[in-house]
Amino acid sequence: MFNNEVSSGRPHVTAVTVFYNRSKYVPDSVESLIQQDYPNLEILLVDDGSTDGTLAALQRYAHDPRVRILTQGNRGFTIALKDAIEQSSGEFIAFHDAGDVSYPTRITRQVEALMGHPKAVLCSSFVDNEDSYTGKVTIHKPRIDSTLIETLLRDNPFYHGEMMYRRDAYEKVGGYRRFFRFSQDYDLWLRMSLLGEAVIVPEVLYHRPLIPGSISMDPKKILLQTLLAEFARQCLLARRSEGMDMLDRHGPAGVLLRQRSPRIANKLAGKGTMLMVKGQQEFGATFLRAARQECVTPRTWLLSHLIWLERIPFLWEHSIAPILHHTYLRRSRREGA
Q1: Would you call 197 exposed, middle or buried from its count of C-beta atoms within 10 A (0-12, 13-18, 19+)?
Q2: Are 309 and 316 in contact (CB under 8 A)?
Q3: In this predicted model, what pLDDT tens digit does every residue of 113-128 receive, in sequence order?
Protein backbone atom coordinates (compact mmCIF):
# COMPACT_ATOMS: atom_id res chain seq x y z
CA MET A 1 0.00 0.00 0.00
CA PHE A 2 1.15 3.52 -0.78
CA ASN A 3 2.73 5.07 2.31
CA ASN A 4 3.86 8.69 2.38
CA GLU A 5 6.15 8.09 5.35
CA VAL A 6 7.94 5.21 3.65
CA SER A 7 8.17 7.07 0.35
CA SER A 8 9.55 10.31 1.78
CA GLY A 9 13.02 11.09 0.52
CA ARG A 10 12.72 8.83 -2.51
CA PRO A 11 12.28 10.30 -6.02
CA HIS A 12 8.69 10.37 -7.21
CA VAL A 13 8.28 8.07 -10.23
CA THR A 14 5.52 8.02 -12.83
CA ALA A 15 4.90 4.75 -14.63
CA VAL A 16 2.83 5.31 -17.77
CA THR A 17 1.27 2.83 -20.18
CA VAL A 18 -1.00 3.39 -23.19
CA PHE A 19 -3.58 0.79 -24.23
CA TYR A 20 -5.53 0.54 -27.45
CA ASN A 21 -7.84 -2.47 -27.95
CA ARG A 22 -5.86 -4.87 -25.80
CA SER A 23 -8.37 -5.67 -23.08
CA LYS A 24 -7.23 -9.27 -22.58
CA TYR A 25 -3.68 -8.10 -21.84
CA VAL A 26 -4.72 -5.57 -19.19
CA PRO A 27 -4.74 -7.79 -16.04
CA ASP A 28 -1.22 -9.22 -16.21
CA SER A 29 0.30 -6.00 -17.55
CA VAL A 30 -1.32 -3.56 -15.11
CA GLU A 31 -0.98 -5.84 -12.08
CA SER A 32 2.76 -5.98 -12.69
CA LEU A 33 2.81 -2.21 -12.09
CA ILE A 34 0.51 -2.48 -9.07
CA GLN A 35 2.90 -5.04 -7.56
CA GLN A 36 6.04 -2.89 -7.85
CA ASP A 37 7.91 -2.72 -4.55
CA TYR A 38 8.82 0.94 -5.01
CA PRO A 39 6.74 3.09 -2.62
CA ASN A 40 6.71 6.56 -4.22
CA LEU A 41 4.96 5.60 -7.45
CA GLU A 42 2.26 7.16 -9.63
CA ILE A 43 0.67 4.89 -12.24
CA LEU A 44 -0.99 6.44 -15.29
CA LEU A 45 -3.19 4.05 -17.28
CA VAL A 46 -4.18 5.58 -20.62
CA ASP A 47 -6.94 4.33 -22.88
CA ASP A 48 -6.50 5.70 -26.41
CA GLY A 49 -10.12 5.40 -27.54
CA SER A 50 -10.41 1.61 -27.37
CA THR A 51 -13.59 -0.09 -28.59
CA ASP A 52 -13.09 -3.57 -27.13
CA GLY A 53 -13.64 -3.09 -23.39
CA THR A 54 -10.10 -1.99 -22.57
CA LEU A 55 -11.31 1.06 -20.65
CA ALA A 56 -13.61 -1.06 -18.46
CA ALA A 57 -10.71 -3.41 -17.76
CA LEU A 58 -8.49 -0.49 -16.74
CA GLN A 59 -11.17 1.00 -14.50
CA ARG A 60 -11.02 -2.08 -12.27
CA TYR A 61 -7.81 -0.60 -10.86
CA ALA A 62 -9.21 2.86 -10.10
CA HIS A 63 -9.49 2.01 -6.40
CA ASP A 64 -5.71 2.00 -5.98
CA PRO A 65 -4.61 5.46 -4.73
CA ARG A 66 -1.50 5.34 -6.93
CA VAL A 67 -3.53 4.87 -10.12
CA ARG A 68 -4.92 7.55 -12.43
CA ILE A 69 -6.93 6.56 -15.49
CA LEU A 70 -6.86 8.85 -18.51
CA THR A 71 -9.12 8.35 -21.51
CA GLN A 72 -9.51 10.10 -24.84
CA GLY A 73 -10.67 9.52 -28.40
CA ASN A 74 -8.24 7.56 -30.53
CA ARG A 75 -5.44 10.02 -31.30
CA GLY A 76 -2.55 7.62 -31.71
CA PHE A 77 0.10 6.25 -29.39
CA THR A 78 2.64 9.09 -29.52
CA ILE A 79 0.10 11.82 -28.81
CA ALA A 80 -1.53 9.80 -26.03
CA LEU A 81 1.83 9.15 -24.38
CA LYS A 82 3.04 12.73 -24.70
CA ASP A 83 -0.21 14.14 -23.27
CA ALA A 84 -0.12 11.68 -20.36
CA ILE A 85 3.40 12.69 -19.39
CA GLU A 86 2.34 16.35 -19.43
CA GLN A 87 -0.25 15.45 -16.78
CA SER A 88 2.17 13.43 -14.67
CA SER A 89 4.24 14.53 -11.67
CA GLY A 90 7.16 12.08 -11.52
CA GLU A 91 10.77 13.18 -11.30
CA PHE A 92 11.53 9.99 -13.23
CA ILE A 93 9.33 8.56 -16.00
CA ALA A 94 9.10 4.80 -16.42
CA PHE A 95 7.42 3.77 -19.65
CA HIS A 96 5.67 0.39 -19.74
CA ASP A 97 4.35 -0.98 -23.02
CA ALA A 98 0.78 -2.28 -23.10
CA GLY A 99 0.70 -6.03 -22.62
CA ASP A 100 4.24 -6.27 -21.24
CA VAL A 101 5.17 -7.16 -17.67
CA SER A 102 7.51 -5.25 -15.34
CA TYR A 103 9.01 -7.51 -12.68
CA PRO A 104 8.43 -6.36 -9.07
CA THR A 105 11.85 -4.76 -8.50
CA ARG A 106 12.03 -2.95 -11.84
CA ILE A 107 11.27 0.57 -10.61
CA THR A 108 13.44 0.24 -7.50
CA ARG A 109 16.46 -1.05 -9.40
CA GLN A 110 16.21 1.58 -12.12
CA VAL A 111 15.85 4.43 -9.64
CA GLU A 112 18.90 3.14 -7.77
CA ALA A 113 20.84 3.03 -11.05
CA LEU A 114 19.92 6.59 -12.03
CA MET A 115 20.62 7.89 -8.53
CA GLY A 116 24.01 6.18 -8.61
CA HIS A 117 24.90 7.71 -12.00
CA PRO A 118 24.07 11.44 -11.90
CA LYS A 119 25.22 11.95 -15.51
CA ALA A 120 22.85 9.29 -16.84
CA VAL A 121 19.60 10.52 -18.39
CA LEU A 122 18.32 7.09 -19.47
CA CYS A 123 18.13 3.71 -17.77
CA SER A 124 17.55 0.35 -19.44
CA SER A 125 17.76 -3.26 -18.26
CA PHE A 126 17.92 -6.79 -19.61
CA VAL A 127 14.63 -7.97 -21.15
CA ASP A 128 13.21 -11.41 -21.77
CA ASN A 129 11.31 -11.79 -25.05
CA GLU A 130 8.70 -14.50 -25.37
CA ASP A 131 7.56 -15.72 -28.77
CA SER A 132 3.78 -15.97 -28.41
CA TYR A 133 3.63 -18.78 -30.99
CA THR A 134 6.46 -21.07 -29.84
CA GLY A 135 6.81 -20.03 -26.20
CA LYS A 136 10.57 -19.68 -26.69
CA VAL A 137 12.17 -17.06 -24.42
CA THR A 138 15.35 -15.18 -25.31
CA ILE A 139 17.11 -12.57 -23.20
CA HIS A 140 17.99 -9.23 -24.76
CA LYS A 141 21.04 -7.58 -23.20
CA PRO A 142 21.46 -4.02 -24.47
CA ARG A 143 24.95 -2.62 -24.37
CA ILE A 144 26.73 0.66 -24.96
CA ASP A 145 30.02 0.19 -26.77
CA SER A 146 31.43 3.70 -26.34
CA THR A 147 29.30 6.76 -25.66
CA LEU A 148 25.51 6.73 -25.76
CA ILE A 149 25.35 9.06 -28.74
CA GLU A 150 27.79 7.06 -30.85
CA THR A 151 26.05 3.79 -29.94
CA LEU A 152 22.66 5.19 -30.96
CA LEU A 153 24.00 6.55 -34.23
CA ARG A 154 24.99 2.98 -35.15
CA ASP A 155 21.73 1.40 -33.98
CA ASN A 156 19.17 1.47 -31.18
CA PRO A 157 20.10 -1.17 -28.57
CA PHE A 158 16.99 -0.49 -26.47
CA TYR A 159 13.35 -1.43 -26.64
CA HIS A 160 10.87 1.15 -25.36
CA GLY A 161 8.96 -0.56 -22.58
CA GLU A 162 11.87 -1.15 -20.21
CA MET A 163 13.13 2.44 -20.27
CA MET A 164 13.19 4.98 -17.43
CA TYR A 165 14.39 8.55 -17.92
CA ARG A 166 14.80 11.82 -16.08
CA ARG A 167 11.91 14.19 -16.51
CA ASP A 168 14.08 17.30 -16.64
CA ALA A 169 16.10 15.89 -19.55
CA TYR A 170 12.90 14.80 -21.30
CA GLU A 171 11.43 18.28 -21.04
CA LYS A 172 14.67 20.00 -22.02
CA VAL A 173 14.73 18.25 -25.41
CA GLY A 174 11.00 18.73 -25.99
CA GLY A 175 9.75 15.23 -25.21
CA TYR A 176 8.25 12.87 -27.75
CA ARG A 177 7.60 14.48 -31.12
CA ARG A 178 4.13 13.99 -32.55
CA PHE A 179 5.48 13.57 -36.07
CA PHE A 180 6.99 10.18 -35.18
CA ARG A 181 4.16 7.68 -35.34
CA PHE A 182 6.87 5.01 -35.09
CA SER A 183 10.43 5.25 -33.73
CA GLN A 184 9.27 8.01 -31.36
CA ASP A 185 11.41 6.44 -28.64
CA TYR A 186 14.56 6.29 -30.79
CA ASP A 187 14.10 9.93 -31.77
CA LEU A 188 13.81 10.85 -28.07
CA TRP A 189 16.86 8.81 -27.01
CA LEU A 190 18.93 10.45 -29.75
CA ARG A 191 18.05 13.96 -28.59
CA MET A 192 18.55 13.05 -24.93
CA SER A 193 21.98 11.62 -25.75
CA LEU A 194 23.13 15.21 -26.29
CA LEU A 195 22.55 15.78 -22.56
CA GLY A 196 24.03 12.70 -20.92
CA GLU A 197 24.65 8.99 -20.89
CA ALA A 198 22.64 5.82 -20.21
CA VAL A 199 22.99 3.19 -17.51
CA ILE A 200 21.92 -0.43 -17.97
CA VAL A 201 20.84 -2.58 -15.03
CA PRO A 202 22.37 -6.02 -15.76
CA GLU A 203 19.28 -7.89 -14.60
CA VAL A 204 16.12 -9.09 -16.32
CA LEU A 205 13.55 -6.58 -15.06
CA TYR A 206 11.07 -6.69 -17.92
CA HIS A 207 9.09 -9.30 -19.85
CA ARG A 208 8.10 -8.64 -23.44
CA PRO A 209 5.67 -11.06 -25.10
CA LEU A 210 5.58 -10.70 -28.87
CA ILE A 211 1.89 -9.88 -29.30
CA PRO A 212 0.14 -10.28 -32.68
CA GLY A 213 -0.54 -6.82 -34.12
CA SER A 214 2.35 -5.16 -32.30
CA ILE A 215 5.00 -3.34 -34.31
CA SER A 216 7.54 -6.12 -33.82
CA MET A 217 5.14 -8.64 -35.39
CA ASP A 218 3.87 -6.52 -38.31
CA PRO A 219 6.20 -6.31 -41.34
CA LYS A 220 4.58 -3.14 -42.73
CA LYS A 221 4.98 -1.38 -39.39
CA ILE A 222 8.59 -2.59 -39.20
CA LEU A 223 9.21 -1.00 -42.61
CA LEU A 224 7.78 2.35 -41.51
CA GLN A 225 9.66 2.12 -38.22
CA THR A 226 12.95 1.49 -40.02
CA LEU A 227 12.54 4.46 -42.37
CA LEU A 228 11.47 6.82 -39.57
CA ALA A 229 14.38 5.66 -37.43
CA GLU A 230 16.78 6.66 -40.20
CA PHE A 231 15.10 10.06 -40.41
CA ALA A 232 15.49 10.47 -36.64
CA ARG A 233 19.17 9.56 -36.98
CA GLN A 234 19.71 12.16 -39.69
CA CYS A 235 17.85 14.73 -37.58
CA LEU A 236 20.30 14.11 -34.73
CA LEU A 237 23.30 14.56 -37.03
CA ALA A 238 21.86 17.87 -38.26
CA ARG A 239 21.02 18.98 -34.71
CA ARG A 240 24.53 18.14 -33.51
CA SER A 241 26.24 20.05 -36.32
CA GLU A 242 23.80 22.92 -36.92
CA GLY A 243 21.80 23.21 -33.71
CA MET A 244 18.51 22.48 -35.51
CA ASP A 245 17.15 19.57 -37.47
CA MET A 246 14.83 19.22 -40.44
CA LEU A 247 11.70 19.06 -38.29
CA ASP A 248 12.81 22.14 -36.33
CA ARG A 249 13.25 24.10 -39.54
CA HIS A 250 10.48 22.83 -41.80
CA GLY A 251 7.96 20.90 -39.72
CA PRO A 252 6.65 17.60 -41.14
CA ALA A 253 7.75 18.62 -44.65
CA GLY A 254 11.32 18.23 -43.42
CA VAL A 255 11.06 14.46 -43.97
CA LEU A 256 11.34 15.20 -47.70
CA LEU A 257 14.94 16.25 -47.06
CA ARG A 258 15.93 12.82 -45.74
CA GLN A 259 19.00 11.53 -47.56
CA ARG A 260 18.97 8.09 -49.14
CA SER A 261 21.03 5.68 -47.07
CA PRO A 262 23.03 2.63 -48.24
CA ARG A 263 23.03 1.50 -44.61
CA ILE A 264 19.23 1.38 -44.49
CA ALA A 265 18.99 -0.14 -47.97
CA ASN A 266 21.14 -3.06 -46.81
CA LYS A 267 19.10 -3.39 -43.61
CA LEU A 268 15.81 -3.51 -45.52
CA ALA A 269 17.22 -6.00 -48.01
CA GLY A 270 18.28 -8.27 -45.17
CA LYS A 271 14.85 -8.12 -43.52
CA GLY A 272 13.13 -8.72 -46.84
CA THR A 273 15.28 -11.73 -47.63
CA MET A 274 14.54 -13.37 -44.28
CA LEU A 275 10.81 -12.78 -44.69
CA MET A 276 11.06 -14.59 -48.02
CA VAL A 277 13.00 -17.45 -46.38
CA LYS A 278 10.26 -17.70 -43.74
CA GLY A 279 7.62 -17.99 -46.46
CA GLN A 280 6.25 -14.44 -46.24
CA GLN A 281 6.84 -13.66 -49.91
CA GLU A 282 4.53 -10.66 -50.17
CA PHE A 283 6.07 -8.82 -47.21
CA GLY A 284 9.57 -9.84 -48.23
CA ALA A 285 9.07 -8.44 -51.71
CA THR A 286 7.82 -5.18 -50.17
CA PHE A 287 11.03 -4.83 -48.17
CA LEU A 288 13.22 -5.65 -51.17
CA ARG A 289 11.43 -3.06 -53.32
CA ALA A 290 11.90 -0.51 -50.55
CA ALA A 291 15.60 -1.42 -50.36
CA ARG A 292 16.11 -0.87 -54.08
CA GLN A 293 14.21 2.41 -53.96
CA GLU A 294 16.33 3.53 -51.03
CA CYS A 295 19.70 2.84 -52.64
CA VAL A 296 21.26 0.28 -54.98
CA THR A 297 24.20 -1.36 -53.23
CA PRO A 298 26.06 -4.60 -53.99
CA ARG A 299 24.04 -6.30 -51.25
CA THR A 300 20.63 -5.07 -52.41
CA TRP A 301 21.49 -5.98 -56.01
CA LEU A 302 22.67 -9.49 -55.07
CA LEU A 303 19.77 -10.29 -52.73
CA SER A 304 17.19 -8.98 -55.19
CA HIS A 305 18.53 -11.33 -57.86
CA LEU A 306 18.87 -14.32 -55.53
CA ILE A 307 15.23 -14.01 -54.57
CA TRP A 308 14.18 -14.67 -58.16
CA LEU A 309 15.54 -18.19 -57.68
CA GLU A 310 12.51 -18.82 -55.48
CA ARG A 311 10.75 -19.58 -58.75
CA ILE A 312 12.88 -22.74 -58.98
CA PRO A 313 11.50 -24.59 -55.91
CA PHE A 314 14.13 -27.37 -55.67
CA LEU A 315 17.09 -24.99 -55.96
CA TRP A 316 15.48 -22.51 -53.55
CA GLU A 317 14.50 -25.01 -50.84
CA HIS A 318 17.68 -27.09 -50.88
CA SER A 319 20.35 -24.51 -51.61
CA ILE A 320 19.58 -20.78 -51.59
CA ALA A 321 17.13 -20.56 -48.64
CA PRO A 322 19.32 -22.60 -46.22
CA ILE A 323 22.38 -20.48 -47.10
CA LEU A 324 20.47 -17.24 -46.54
CA HIS A 325 18.99 -18.55 -43.29
CA HIS A 326 22.41 -19.59 -41.97
CA THR A 327 23.86 -16.20 -42.93
CA TYR A 328 21.04 -14.42 -41.11
CA LEU A 329 21.49 -16.47 -37.91
CA ARG A 330 25.24 -15.94 -37.89
CA ARG A 331 24.84 -12.21 -38.42
CA SER A 332 22.14 -11.97 -35.70
CA ARG A 333 24.39 -13.70 -33.15
CA ARG A 334 27.29 -11.42 -34.06
CA GLU A 335 25.11 -8.33 -33.54
CA GLY A 336 23.67 -9.67 -30.27
CA ALA A 337 20.11 -9.94 -31.59
Answers
A1: middle
A2: yes
A3: 999 999 999 999 999 9
